[in-house]
Amino acid sequence: MTPGRPCARPASASEPDPTAEKATKDAMSNATNVSPAHSASTASTLITNIAVLVTNDPSLGDSSPLGLIQDAAVVIEGDRVVWTGESSKAPATDNRVDAGGRAVLPGFVDSHSHLVFAGDRTQEFNARVSGRPYSAGGIRTTVAATRAATDGELEANLTRYLSEALRQGTTTFETKSGYGLTVEDESRALRIASAHTEEVTYLGAHIVSPDYADDPAAYVALVTGEMLDACAPHARWIDVFCEKGAFDGDQARAILTAGKAKGLYPRVHANQLSYGPGVQLAVELDAASADHCTHLTDADVDALANSSTVATLLPGAEFSTRAEWPNARRLLDAGATVALSTDCNPGSSFTSSVAFCIALAVRDMGMTPDEALWSATAGGAAALRRTDIGRLSPGARADLMLLDAPSHVHLAYRPGVPLVTQVWRRGERVV
Question: Each residue of 24-75: pLDDT tens digit?
């Protein structure tokens, strides 16, 4: 989010306890963020010889939103960051890792993906890039394949793409249902996803189910009734595709309001294919994010800039569909909080690479490399209303990556190059 703006957020079991985090910070021995003494049962690890450390905390580094520290080090204890600063001032630790002059960044926070699916839409993509325009109708192809898949097949597909994303630096991801569109298939998608992430979104309102093509009102009643009852125990969020060919503003409001009554927090697929009510609805209902935000009026931009709703931009979709790029510069200049995410899905954005999306945002959406990185880390955390991820400062979760480069700018400067050499999640090296 924009530095200095508070971000209201729902409680989450995955977030650090604020009292405990304050106690940790208070225990630091000086203003350079020295770690408190570690317990005998918890080993501490120093990562040192870092060319530049991105903390996303301006109070720790150069006062920019990225909070850059040159010639830096970071100390991990358990699953948390407990110290950051210059290498020469690093405290003694149990273990030591030499970063070899590489840049260290927070892990990417991918706040919008659709990974519980089966099937392939290669032919659709090939036809589209050969001249046929994209529409929401292609979702039905994946719905049929997903319904026919076993639980094991769906989970194997999910874990395949999660591993792919992890190797590229993504340490937190959100994913949705939306390719089942029956009570049974939506609930099993969420059950499978919830075994792999706490950021799970109920998207029964992806499109009107083909089974209800002649009676959309009955499908809305199902989504807000029996399907919601079955899905709510497995999800944190509720989402709706508010778009021509999917759900109009009144239907979307009814769906999101029903979800809120069940304890699910709203997100909205908004203004992707055309101008519409999605962004205004997201702000009205205090949705955590309005996603896509391609077609915006001045009133939409103002609404986002004066709310805690994050504008999540998904350039992989525009790349794949050859659609108009979202104008990130317009949103940023207005003071809106912007996130970048992959929208990884089998139809319109089949990429798991946040780094690729950063490069697209810099080249085609008016973002600087600093803004794009912040949006893919701290911005994604804001879109999930999380404060324990997307940053590398004392108390944060120890999710980070090492780049085979001296600066984060190389993510845009060297597009398509696999720069991530190490990934640490919850304080453990996983790549």
Answer: 333 333 323 333 333 335 899 999 999 999 999 999 999 999 999 999 999 9
Give the pairing of strands 420-425 and 428-429: antiparallel
Report the range of poorest mean pLDDT among 37-41, 147-151, 264-268, 290-294.
37-41
Nearest to 277 by CA among 305, 296, 264, 263: 296
CB-based contacts of 80: which residues, under 8 Å, 6+ apart? 16, 24, 394, 395, 396, 397, 398, 427
Supply the pLDDT for residue 139: 85
**Interatomic CA distance for residues 167 and 362, integer angstroms:** 22
Task: Give Cα separations from 419 to 68, 174, 197 (angstroms).
Answer: 19, 23, 25
Q: Which residues pair with 200 in a beta bridge?
A: 175
List of E strands, 154-288: 170-173, 175-176, 200-205, 237-242, 265-266, 268-270
Average of pLDDT values for 303-330? 96
CA distance 11 to 2: 21
Distance CA(344)–CA(356), nearest Å, equals 12
Helix, strand, coil shares of the chain, percent, nearest 5, are 35, 20, 45
3-state secondary structure of 262: coil
d(CA 311, CA 367): 14
Contact status, residue 286 vs residue 275, Cβ threshold 8 Å: no
Give dist(CA 149, CA 346) in Å, integer. Answer: 15
CB 341 within 8 A of CB 383: yes
- DSSP label at residue 14: T
Residues 6+ away with beta carbon under 8 Å from 374:
56, 65, 66
Structure tokens given for 416: 């398509």
- Rounded to an integer, what distance in angstroms lies between the CA atom of residue 327 and that of residue 366? 7
